């Protein structure tokens, strides 16, 4: 397959770090998205790299035993290192601050620390097998202050830094999840919820593994994703991903089920609000969009893959070394390797190869893989970098080779103008609020963000319609398309810009369609409060029409 057949790719500028080996241990911090390469317990060096870090952080620390976990606070001000199951050591990385280590032991007697999470530049959470402890770090005093704690039996935990939520697995089976929310020095206990296991457990051992759970923000809402493996004897045709919506207030609710229709080893990412499911056995991935229409059974919505399964685009690893030396050919990267570790939302790490990639979605190949133009527009309008792809689809559907029917063209125009109108209304509401005296700094007043999904009349005129009218196309089709776009604007009560009127008049005059010109002027232009500017486009011989 060529590049145009792959809709997923690894970023072209990955983070490169020293690969894992008996001397070098590799750790990943999900909050700062940093990779730590710790050599000989730190005695021979620690190198910290992240996707946005131009300059890696390098330092040494005394080898006091095996490092179990290592993370910087937000803004890289304080380093926390766990070496034992009882304590965490801290070092200040603040200018003119003491470099001496200080230590905090977990407060709960006989508890073992499972791990820790930074929730701000000076706030940290210890997760133990007996509960959760929330601390404020005081770097000047080189000690910690306990803000809040909660006793609860914990099997494992998961942290979502984007939502500032820690999820604890509790009970014997492990399928009762207890979320905690952190913000500005406060810890809030959210309602616990139960993950439905695929079948009644035959034993009382742990049935829910952290490998089958992920947390991610999708379309601004926090979801818990559960990868449910069905047994071979089940009537279902394969595994599925169950999405539980986890709100700030109220109970967690099962909302969506993504049907995978296969079994095996899976991994999950979320990219551009799309759930990406990787299947190791077939070395392919599929994507799901929960905004697209699914099958609602009254309780949950079932979704199928948006597109056929495809591999991630083949990737070449460049040879390391100075530019004059690297004349060797790049080495093909082993995709879907068993050494790959996936982190949310979009990170793939190969510790054995020493690379961290961000997974990316390629929109242009999707245009040819999704023939339903209406569904394609629904999909593209939700993507971040969609404008030029949408405009290319509009041009494509008006071309001689891929010409769409008028009803399809009308559907596309209506979907575009629906988004356009939403933005115009939001902008108008913002302007009205300002004129009414509301302050720009008011937290309730936010200027609407113009996303790439807003395709205005200028965009359509410049990139699509003006180019389209210059092509050798049947004039009836050309005029029908122009009138369809104006019809759609009128339907959404969007004022038609004069250059669109002028384009229609120019096209009608060019083809000597004076009867249609008369109707157009009567119904679309003469009703305009400023119609005179278009008259200059009319030849003298047809001014009688006016």
UniProtKB/TrEMBL annotation:
SUPFAM superfamilies: WD40 repeat-like. GO terms for biological process: regulation of autophagy. GO terms for cellular component: late endosome membrane; lysosomal membrane; Mon1-Ccz1 complex. It comes from the Eukaryota. InterPro entries: RMC1, RMC1_C, RMC1_N, WD40/YVTN_repeat-like_dom_sf, WD40_repeat_dom_sf. Gene3D superfamilies: YVTN repeat-like/Quinoprotein amine dehydrogenase. Residues 383-535 form the Mic1 domain. This is Regulator of MON1-CCZ1 complex isoform X7. It comes from Zalophus californianus. The gene is RMC1.
């Amino acid at each position: 397959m060529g590049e145009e057949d792959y809709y997923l790719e690894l970023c072209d500028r990955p983070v490169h770090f020293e690969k894992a080996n008996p001397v070098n241990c590799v750790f990943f911090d999900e909050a700062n998205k940093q990779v730590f390469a710790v050599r000989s317990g730190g005695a021979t060096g620690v190198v910290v790299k992240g996707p946005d870090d131009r300059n890696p952080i390098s330092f040494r620390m005394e080898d006091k035993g095996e490092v179990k976990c290592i993370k910087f606070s937000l803004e890289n001000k304080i380093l926390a290192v766990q070496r034992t199951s009882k304590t965490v050591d801290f070092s200040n990385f603040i200018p003119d601050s003491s470099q001496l280590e200080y230590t905090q032991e977990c407060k709960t007697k006989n508890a073992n620390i499972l791990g820790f999470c930074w929730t701000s530049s000076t706030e940290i959470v210890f997760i133990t097998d007996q509960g959760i402890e929330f601390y404020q770090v005081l770097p000047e005093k080189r000690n910690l202050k306990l803000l809040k704690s909660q006793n609860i039996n914990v099997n494992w935990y998961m942290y979502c830094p984007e939502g500032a939520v820690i999820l604890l697995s509790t009970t014997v089976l492990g399928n009762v999840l207890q979320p905690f929310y952190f913000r500005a020095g406060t810890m809030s206990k959210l309602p616990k919820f139960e993950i439905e296991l695929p079948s009644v457990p035959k034993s009382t051992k742990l049935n829910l593994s952290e490998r089958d759970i992920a947390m991610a923000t999708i379309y601004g809402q926090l979801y818990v994703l559960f990868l449910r493996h069905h047994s071979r004897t089940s009537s279902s045709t394969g595994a599925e991903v169950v999405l539980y919506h986890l709100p700030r207030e109220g109970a967690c609710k099962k909302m969506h089920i993504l049907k995978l229709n296969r079994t095996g080893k899976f991994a999950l990412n979320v990219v551009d609000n799309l759930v990406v499911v990787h299947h190791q056995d077939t070395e392919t991935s599929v994507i799901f969009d929960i905004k697209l229409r699914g099958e609602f059974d009254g309780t949950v919505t079932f979704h199928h893959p948006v597109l056929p399964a495809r591999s991630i685009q083949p990737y070449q690893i460049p040879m390391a070394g100075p530019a004059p030396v690297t004349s060797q050919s790049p080495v093909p990267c082993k995709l879907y390797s068993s050494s790959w570790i996936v982190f949310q939302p979009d990170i793939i790490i190969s510790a054995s190869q020493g690379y961290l990639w961000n997974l990316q979605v390629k929109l242009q190949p999707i245009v040819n893989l999704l023939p339903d133009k209406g569904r394609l527009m629904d999909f593209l309008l939700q993507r971040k970098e969609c404008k030029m792809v949408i405009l290319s689809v509009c041009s494509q559907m008006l071309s001689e080779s891929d010409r769409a029917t008028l009803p399809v063209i009308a559907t596309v125009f209506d979907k575009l103008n629906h988004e356009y109108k939403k933005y115009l209304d939001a902008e108008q509401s913002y302007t009205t609020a300002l004129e009414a005296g509301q302050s720009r700094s008011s937290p309730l007043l936010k200027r609407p963000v113009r996303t790439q999904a807003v395709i205005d009349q200028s965009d359509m005129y410049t990139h699509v319609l003006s180019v389209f009218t210059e092509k050798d196309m049947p004039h009836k089709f050309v005029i029908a398309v122009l009138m369809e776009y104006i019809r759609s604007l009128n339907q959404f009560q969007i004022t038609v810009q004069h250059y669109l009127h002028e384009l229609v008049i120019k096209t009608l005059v060019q083809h000597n369609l004076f009867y249609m010109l008369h109707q157009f002027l009567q119904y679309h232009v003469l009703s305009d409060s400023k119609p005179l500017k278009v008259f200059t486009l009319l030849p003298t011989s047809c001014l009688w029409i006016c």
